[in-house]
Amino acid sequence: MIIRLEDIELRARHGVFESERTEGNLFRVSVSMRLPDSAGMQTDRIEDTVDYGDVYAVVKREMEVPSALLEHVAERIRSALAASFSEASDIRVSVSKHNPPVGGKVEWATVEIDN
Question: What residues in the chain have per-residue pLDDT under 50?
């Protein structure tokens, strides 16, 4: 089975420029990971599967640590998910920054990584 959390919105302080680190910005994070079929498919009990809240908590924790590059943030999230959910494979993470400072109008800049 595959679990996805899509477009998690968080404010964070990632960026190369000092203003990005002090003022912060809006970010969107999406994650997906393949897991073995869980007993929860039959039991309907949260204890028998991966709790989405636990996945969200890992993402939120990593987003609270400032980084200069989206690539670095995405890799930290991917590594933290792999460490927290050892049974997971094919972990994919995308991190998007709203209105990145590139000298023109850009709605979102996104970096996506997988293993």
Answer: none
